[in-house]
Design brief:
Keywords: Cell membrane, Membrane, Transmembrane, Transmembrane helix, Transport. InterPro entries: MetI-like (IPR000515), MetI-like_sf (IPR035906). With about 270 residues, the protein is mainly α. The protein has helices spanning about 1-25, 30-35, 50-55, 60-90, 95-105, 115-125, 130-155, 160-165, 170-185, 185-200, 205-210, 220, 235-269. α7 (about 130-155) runs antiparallel to α10 (about 185-200). The radius of gyration is 23 Å and the shape is globular. The two termini are about 35 Å apart.
Protein backbone atom coordinates (compact mmCIF):
# COMPACT_ATOMS: atom_id res chain seq x y z
CA UNK A 1 0.00 0.00 0.00
CA UNK A 2 2.83 2.39 0.88
CA UNK A 3 4.62 1.64 -2.38
CA UNK A 4 1.41 2.30 -4.33
CA UNK A 5 0.93 5.68 -2.65
CA UNK A 6 4.57 6.57 -3.30
CA UNK A 7 4.25 5.58 -6.97
CA UNK A 8 1.08 7.65 -7.37
CA UNK A 9 2.77 10.64 -5.73
CA UNK A 10 5.74 10.39 -8.10
CA UNK A 11 3.40 10.03 -11.07
CA UNK A 12 1.41 13.08 -9.95
CA UNK A 13 4.60 15.14 -9.65
CA UNK A 14 5.72 14.08 -13.13
CA UNK A 15 2.46 15.52 -14.46
CA UNK A 16 2.14 18.60 -12.24
CA UNK A 17 5.69 19.93 -12.62
CA UNK A 18 5.52 20.35 -16.44
CA UNK A 19 2.03 21.86 -16.10
CA UNK A 20 3.28 24.38 -13.55
CA UNK A 21 6.23 25.27 -15.79
CA UNK A 22 3.90 25.87 -18.72
CA UNK A 23 1.57 27.99 -16.58
CA UNK A 24 4.43 30.06 -15.11
CA UNK A 25 6.09 30.58 -18.48
CA UNK A 26 2.82 31.82 -19.95
CA UNK A 27 2.87 34.80 -17.53
CA UNK A 28 6.55 35.72 -18.01
CA UNK A 29 8.38 37.91 -20.47
CA UNK A 30 10.68 36.32 -23.02
CA UNK A 31 13.74 37.71 -21.23
CA UNK A 32 12.65 36.23 -17.89
CA UNK A 33 12.05 32.87 -19.51
CA UNK A 34 15.61 32.60 -20.80
CA UNK A 35 17.16 34.17 -17.69
CA UNK A 36 15.39 31.94 -15.14
CA UNK A 37 13.23 29.22 -16.75
CA UNK A 38 12.19 27.64 -13.43
CA UNK A 39 11.78 30.80 -11.35
CA UNK A 40 8.81 33.00 -10.61
CA UNK A 41 8.20 36.10 -12.74
CA UNK A 42 10.42 38.93 -11.51
CA UNK A 43 8.38 41.78 -12.99
CA UNK A 44 5.00 40.45 -11.96
CA UNK A 45 2.62 38.15 -13.77
CA UNK A 46 2.25 39.14 -17.42
CA UNK A 47 -1.45 38.55 -17.84
CA UNK A 48 -1.25 40.75 -20.90
CA UNK A 49 0.10 37.71 -22.79
CA UNK A 50 -3.41 36.27 -22.84
CA UNK A 51 -4.98 39.39 -24.28
CA UNK A 52 -2.08 39.96 -26.68
CA UNK A 53 -2.35 36.49 -28.15
CA UNK A 54 -5.88 37.24 -29.33
CA UNK A 55 -5.24 40.82 -30.39
CA UNK A 56 -1.92 40.48 -32.18
CA UNK A 57 -1.93 36.90 -33.42
CA UNK A 58 -5.56 36.64 -34.57
CA UNK A 59 -6.01 33.64 -32.32
CA UNK A 60 -9.72 34.31 -32.00
CA UNK A 61 -10.22 33.25 -35.62
CA UNK A 62 -8.05 30.16 -35.20
CA UNK A 63 -9.94 29.27 -32.03
CA UNK A 64 -13.26 29.57 -33.87
CA UNK A 65 -11.98 27.39 -36.74
CA UNK A 66 -10.93 24.66 -34.29
CA UNK A 67 -14.29 24.89 -32.54
CA UNK A 68 -16.25 24.53 -35.79
CA UNK A 69 -14.16 21.64 -37.09
CA UNK A 70 -14.15 19.78 -33.77
CA UNK A 71 -17.86 20.13 -32.96
CA UNK A 72 -19.07 19.13 -36.41
CA UNK A 73 -16.55 16.27 -36.61
CA UNK A 74 -17.54 14.86 -33.21
CA UNK A 75 -21.30 15.17 -33.70
CA UNK A 76 -21.35 13.75 -37.22
CA UNK A 77 -18.93 10.94 -36.38
CA UNK A 78 -21.05 9.90 -33.39
CA UNK A 79 -24.22 10.08 -35.49
CA UNK A 80 -22.93 7.86 -38.30
CA UNK A 81 -20.96 5.54 -36.00
CA UNK A 82 -23.93 4.94 -33.69
CA UNK A 83 -26.19 4.02 -36.62
CA UNK A 84 -23.55 1.70 -38.09
CA UNK A 85 -22.87 0.10 -34.69
CA UNK A 86 -26.60 -0.42 -34.14
CA UNK A 87 -26.95 -2.09 -37.53
CA UNK A 88 -23.94 -4.36 -36.97
CA UNK A 89 -25.09 -5.33 -33.48
CA UNK A 90 -28.51 -6.29 -34.86
CA UNK A 91 -26.99 -8.54 -37.54
CA UNK A 92 -26.29 -11.87 -35.87
CA UNK A 93 -25.07 -13.63 -39.04
CA UNK A 94 -21.83 -13.63 -41.01
CA UNK A 95 -22.64 -10.30 -42.66
CA UNK A 96 -22.39 -8.43 -39.35
CA UNK A 97 -19.00 -9.99 -38.65
CA UNK A 98 -17.71 -9.02 -42.09
CA UNK A 99 -18.88 -5.42 -41.73
CA UNK A 100 -17.34 -5.20 -38.27
CA UNK A 101 -14.10 -6.65 -39.61
CA UNK A 102 -13.96 -4.12 -42.45
CA UNK A 103 -14.27 -1.20 -40.03
CA UNK A 104 -11.67 -2.81 -37.77
CA UNK A 105 -9.28 -2.99 -40.72
CA UNK A 106 -9.66 0.77 -41.09
CA UNK A 107 -8.02 1.18 -37.69
CA UNK A 108 -4.92 -0.70 -38.84
CA UNK A 109 -3.93 1.72 -41.62
CA UNK A 110 -1.51 4.43 -40.38
CA UNK A 111 -2.50 7.99 -41.21
CA UNK A 112 0.86 8.62 -42.90
CA UNK A 113 0.14 5.91 -45.49
CA UNK A 114 -2.94 7.77 -46.72
CA UNK A 115 -1.38 11.23 -46.91
CA UNK A 116 -0.49 11.31 -50.61
CA UNK A 117 -3.66 9.71 -52.03
CA UNK A 118 -5.82 11.63 -49.59
CA UNK A 119 -4.24 14.93 -50.57
CA UNK A 120 -4.70 14.12 -54.27
CA UNK A 121 -8.36 13.30 -53.66
CA UNK A 122 -9.01 16.47 -51.66
CA UNK A 123 -7.23 18.53 -54.31
CA UNK A 124 -9.38 17.04 -57.07
CA UNK A 125 -12.52 17.76 -55.04
CA UNK A 126 -11.35 21.34 -54.38
CA UNK A 127 -11.58 20.77 -50.61
CA UNK A 128 -8.12 21.97 -49.63
CA UNK A 129 -8.06 25.22 -47.62
CA UNK A 130 -11.56 24.40 -46.46
CA UNK A 131 -13.07 23.67 -43.05
CA UNK A 132 -15.54 21.34 -44.77
CA UNK A 133 -12.63 19.32 -46.12
CA UNK A 134 -11.13 18.97 -42.64
CA UNK A 135 -14.47 17.88 -41.20
CA UNK A 136 -14.95 15.21 -43.88
CA UNK A 137 -11.42 13.89 -43.38
CA UNK A 138 -11.85 13.78 -39.60
CA UNK A 139 -15.08 11.81 -39.95
CA UNK A 140 -13.52 9.31 -42.35
CA UNK A 141 -10.41 8.82 -40.21
CA UNK A 142 -12.10 8.41 -36.80
CA UNK A 143 -15.25 6.56 -37.93
CA UNK A 144 -13.64 3.08 -37.62
CA UNK A 145 -12.53 3.55 -34.00
CA UNK A 146 -15.91 5.04 -33.07
CA UNK A 147 -17.73 2.11 -34.69
CA UNK A 148 -15.41 -0.31 -32.91
CA UNK A 149 -16.14 1.18 -29.47
CA UNK A 150 -19.90 1.59 -29.93
CA UNK A 151 -20.43 -1.81 -31.52
CA UNK A 152 -18.74 -3.53 -28.60
CA UNK A 153 -21.12 -1.80 -26.21
CA UNK A 154 -24.32 -2.23 -28.24
CA UNK A 155 -23.71 -5.96 -28.58
CA UNK A 156 -24.08 -6.22 -24.81
CA UNK A 157 -27.56 -4.66 -24.78
CA UNK A 158 -30.31 -7.16 -23.89
CA UNK A 159 -31.84 -8.62 -27.02
CA UNK A 160 -35.16 -8.98 -25.21
CA UNK A 161 -35.59 -5.18 -25.19
CA UNK A 162 -35.50 -5.05 -28.98
CA UNK A 163 -37.82 -8.05 -29.27
CA UNK A 164 -40.30 -6.34 -26.95
CA UNK A 165 -40.04 -3.14 -29.00
CA UNK A 166 -40.74 -5.11 -32.18
CA UNK A 167 -43.83 -6.65 -30.60
CA UNK A 168 -45.02 -3.14 -29.67
CA UNK A 169 -44.73 -2.15 -33.33
CA UNK A 170 -41.46 -0.21 -33.23
CA UNK A 171 -39.39 -0.08 -36.39
CA UNK A 172 -35.62 0.01 -36.67
CA UNK A 173 -35.51 3.79 -36.36
CA UNK A 174 -37.65 3.76 -33.21
CA UNK A 175 -35.50 1.01 -31.68
CA UNK A 176 -32.37 3.00 -32.52
CA UNK A 177 -33.60 6.31 -31.08
CA UNK A 178 -35.78 5.06 -28.19
CA UNK A 179 -33.84 2.02 -26.98
CA UNK A 180 -30.28 1.81 -28.27
CA UNK A 181 -29.24 5.47 -27.91
CA UNK A 182 -30.53 6.03 -24.31
CA UNK A 183 -28.88 2.82 -23.12
CA UNK A 184 -25.64 3.68 -24.96
CA UNK A 185 -25.11 7.08 -23.35
CA UNK A 186 -22.10 5.91 -21.28
CA UNK A 187 -20.35 4.62 -24.39
CA UNK A 188 -21.36 7.66 -26.43
CA UNK A 189 -20.00 10.01 -23.75
CA UNK A 190 -16.69 8.19 -23.54
CA UNK A 191 -16.39 8.12 -27.33
CA UNK A 192 -17.26 11.83 -27.53
CA UNK A 193 -14.44 12.70 -25.12
CA UNK A 194 -12.02 10.54 -27.09
CA UNK A 195 -13.03 12.09 -30.43
CA UNK A 196 -12.96 15.62 -29.02
CA UNK A 197 -9.37 15.24 -27.85
CA UNK A 198 -8.30 13.72 -31.19
CA UNK A 199 -9.94 16.39 -33.36
CA UNK A 200 -9.04 19.36 -31.17
CA UNK A 201 -5.35 18.38 -31.00
CA UNK A 202 -5.08 17.28 -34.63
CA UNK A 203 -2.11 18.85 -36.39
CA UNK A 204 -1.39 16.43 -39.23
CA UNK A 205 -4.40 17.08 -41.46
CA UNK A 206 -4.56 20.87 -41.00
CA UNK A 207 -0.84 20.96 -41.78
CA UNK A 208 -1.47 18.84 -44.87
CA UNK A 209 -4.55 20.60 -46.26
CA UNK A 210 -4.49 24.17 -44.92
CA UNK A 211 -2.19 26.92 -46.16
CA UNK A 212 -4.57 29.88 -45.99
CA UNK A 213 -4.38 31.73 -42.65
CA UNK A 214 -8.16 32.21 -42.69
CA UNK A 215 -8.71 28.45 -42.26
CA UNK A 216 -5.91 27.55 -39.82
CA UNK A 217 -6.83 25.69 -36.66
CA UNK A 218 -5.36 26.35 -33.23
CA UNK A 219 -2.68 23.60 -33.19
CA UNK A 220 -1.46 24.72 -36.60
CA UNK A 221 -1.45 28.37 -35.53
CA UNK A 222 0.76 27.57 -32.53
CA UNK A 223 3.56 26.71 -34.94
CA UNK A 224 3.80 30.41 -35.78
CA UNK A 225 5.52 31.00 -32.44
CA UNK A 226 8.36 28.67 -33.43
CA UNK A 227 10.89 30.33 -35.68
CA UNK A 228 13.94 28.91 -37.40
CA UNK A 229 16.37 30.38 -34.87
CA UNK A 230 14.20 31.31 -31.87
CA UNK A 231 10.92 30.46 -30.17
CA UNK A 232 8.63 32.81 -28.29
CA UNK A 233 8.02 30.45 -25.37
CA UNK A 234 5.74 32.72 -23.28
CA UNK A 235 3.34 33.24 -26.17
CA UNK A 236 3.62 29.59 -27.23
CA UNK A 237 2.79 28.34 -23.73
CA UNK A 238 -0.01 30.89 -23.45
CA UNK A 239 -1.46 29.40 -26.61
CA UNK A 240 -1.05 25.91 -25.17
CA UNK A 241 -2.99 26.92 -22.03
CA UNK A 242 -5.76 28.43 -24.14
CA UNK A 243 -5.85 25.39 -26.41
CA UNK A 244 -6.01 23.00 -23.44
CA UNK A 245 -8.80 24.81 -21.59
CA UNK A 246 -11.67 23.59 -23.84
CA UNK A 247 -10.54 19.98 -23.46
CA UNK A 248 -10.56 20.23 -19.68
CA UNK A 249 -13.95 21.94 -19.68
CA UNK A 250 -15.39 19.41 -22.14
CA UNK A 251 -14.10 16.51 -20.07
CA UNK A 252 -15.67 17.84 -16.87
CA UNK A 253 -18.90 18.63 -18.70
CA UNK A 254 -19.18 15.24 -20.45
CA UNK A 255 -18.11 13.35 -17.34
CA UNK A 256 -21.34 14.43 -15.66
CA UNK A 257 -23.34 13.09 -18.59
CA UNK A 258 -21.25 9.94 -18.51
CA UNK A 259 -22.39 9.18 -14.94
CA UNK A 260 -25.98 10.20 -15.76
CA UNK A 261 -25.92 7.89 -18.78
CA UNK A 262 -24.73 4.98 -16.67
CA UNK A 263 -27.58 5.56 -14.23
CA UNK A 264 -30.15 5.83 -17.02
CA UNK A 265 -28.86 2.64 -18.60
CA UNK A 266 -29.09 0.78 -15.31
CA UNK A 267 -32.66 1.93 -14.73
CA UNK A 268 -33.75 1.03 -18.22
CA UNK A 269 -32.06 -2.37 -18.04
Amino acid sequence: MLFRKFSLAVYALLILIPLLMVALTSVKTLQETFRDPLGLPEDGFQWSNYSAIFQEQTMAGYFMNSTIVTLFSVVLTLFFASMIAFGISRLKNWMGNILFGLFTLGMMVPAQVNMVPLYSLMLDLNLTNSLLGLILVNIAVTLPIAVFILTGFMKTLPRELFEASTIDGAGNWQMYTKVAIPLSLPSLSATAIFLFVMHWNDLLYPLLFITDNAYKTLPLALLEFQGEYSTNYPMLFTGVIIASAPMVIAYVFLQRFFVAGMTAGALKG
